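Appendix C reproduces, verbatim, an entry submitted by the partner laboratory led by Prof. M.T., so that reviewers can inspect both the input and the predicted structure.
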Amino acid sequence: MGIWKDSGQQPQSPMQRGFIAILLFMVTLFACASQDDGVATNFSGQANFTQLNPYTDASLEDIIQRIESTIGGGSTNQNSSSTQITQGGTQPRWVNDPYAVYARDRYIAAVGSAGNRDEAQKKALAALVAIFGQSVRSDFTAVTMYTEAVHRGIVSVSENNRVRDEVSTAASMENLIGAEIGNVWDNGRGTVYAVAYMEKAKTISIYSDLIILNNRNIEFLTAMNDTEKNTLDGYARYKLAALVSTINSNYSTLISLAGGSTGALNIRSANYFNLEAANIIKNITVAVNVNNDVSNRIRDAFASALTAEGLRTRGNNPLYTLEVRLDMSEVTFPNNSYIYCGFTVSANLVEKTTGAVLFPFNFTDREGHTTYANAEARAVSMMERTIAEKYPVALREYLASLLPLN
């Protein structure tokens, strides 16, 4: 017989104990089944980030503090406290070989020259960036989107505005975090030389921290259930994750060239996220409704353009609708025997749950003939051509510029 403490309750029967054991087993089984690829979700479908992230909150706070200290403390692209400025005299050895002063095993260094000090320093910093080659150049449009995501708080970096600005600039690889101006020499004959350098250990540390922080942002961006994922917002999240992953790849190159290792940083290929984004598009349905259509010709023209981008146009309970309105009217001009059909096509991509217009598209034109019936026929053909030529381009631009909702 088991030992139990008297609490005013009766001991459980074997049947009760069996029922409780089964119940506990089912709760455990449900908890395991509710995890998708290691990401736990609650009943609202929101990600449980405590389970998601391998780094503790405390460690992330340390990383952010280190980044803020490096950038906010003014140690990026600034004159260091050890900067030596000289004029005239014998040409310093570092002018021809910066590693004569900055030991190659500890530093990466480059020299720039110009007619004044500011320009010489800019050229030295540019020469330092050039050491890492074209492999770390970032696409202008991608950097613009990343910058907007940082400043809108979609990608978390810091509450410090200057730090956010510097991290955004660093993503373009135009400037290097931790780069400093060492020595400046004015030869007294119209040329100023400057040397820029980076400490390898600091470079490895700061860019490793940025990769870890970016990995956390990628995890937040992609933590969705299937319902959330198969939406335009889900698509935008995976595209942004791909962009951040590309930036991580550039940072990885910097670390490697500084002599560090990125094997433990878990950098995932941007191709993975781009492929997932392409799969998401294939699972999104956009219903096409046309007011005043002509034998479904305008509907078919828009449907073909949507299908060409991977979207579905037929399916149950579509999340989005392309609401198209076609207006045509007869137009005549004095002293002109032609009769014209003037028209306007307006197409709004609408989110059904909110009624919000996500992407408007419209155009106006006219076609003429000796009869209005023929003018109208020509007008409809022109509409089809214009939709086929212009709508896919506009749609691709819209999808490429999408950022996730905050």
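The first strand starts at residue 35 and ends at 36. Additional entries are available on request from the coordinating office.
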